[in-house]
Amino acid sequence: MLMKLVVGITGSTGVVYGVRMLKVLREKKVETHLVMTEWAKKCLSMETDYKLDDVKTLASQYSDDSNLASGISSGTYRTDGMIVIPCSMKTLSSIANGYDETLVARAAGVTMKESRKLVLVPRETPLTAIHLENMLKLARLGVVILPPVPGFYTRPKSIDELVDHTVGKCLDQFGIEHDLYKRWGS
């Protein structure tokens, strides 16, 4: 049986993380259901040469962030979990406080209520006490908070290698084998 993951891309800088995640999951034959916020779409055009249609084709399915009737808004829609990469503080706050106004937040809430793995890749610095409290609240509920913090022991030589390190750490959370970075001691 194929693994099925929901991938949310939000409007925090670092949209390249989400695009790379989709590429790798496609290579690994993981079924994906993509949701992008409006600000993610804006960041896509500001930060990359990708077009929205290019990114949509990387996913198995796509739903608009305003479509709360999408299958992923229900716990009866079976998935193995969800990754929000990058995750804006606005989205993180929505998830932490059960404010399911968008499909990304609703799908994350469904992921938690169904006891499925949820990985958030928050992009913000510096962090306020509010940010930290929201992350702590989610971590206590079992959500994986995985900021894009590179491991320099791999001696990265490019931005792509830095991105791959974070993407690889996310894949590790779901037990997906990869060789995106050199592991410690190997």
UniProtKB/TrEMBL annotation:
Residues that hold FMN according to the record: G11, S12, T13, T37, S88, M89, K90, T91, R123
Segments forming a coiled coil: none
Catalytic activity field: dimethylallyl phosphate + FMNH2 = prenylated FMNH2 + phosphate
Source taxon at top rank: Archaea
Enzyme Commission code(s) on record: 2.5.1.129
Binding-site residues, dimethylallyl phosphate: Y153, K169
Family listed: Belongs to the UbiX/PAD1 family.
Role: Flavin prenyltransferase that catalyzes the synthesis of the prenylated FMN cofactor (prenyl-FMN) for 4-hydroxy-3-polyprenylbenzoic acid decarboxylase UbiD. The prenyltransferase is metal-independent and links a dimethylallyl moiety from dimethylallyl monophosphate (DMAP) to the flavin N5 and C6 atoms of FMN.
Name of the molecule in the record: Flavin prenyltransferase UbiX
Organism this protein belongs to: Candidatus Nitrosotenuis uzonensis
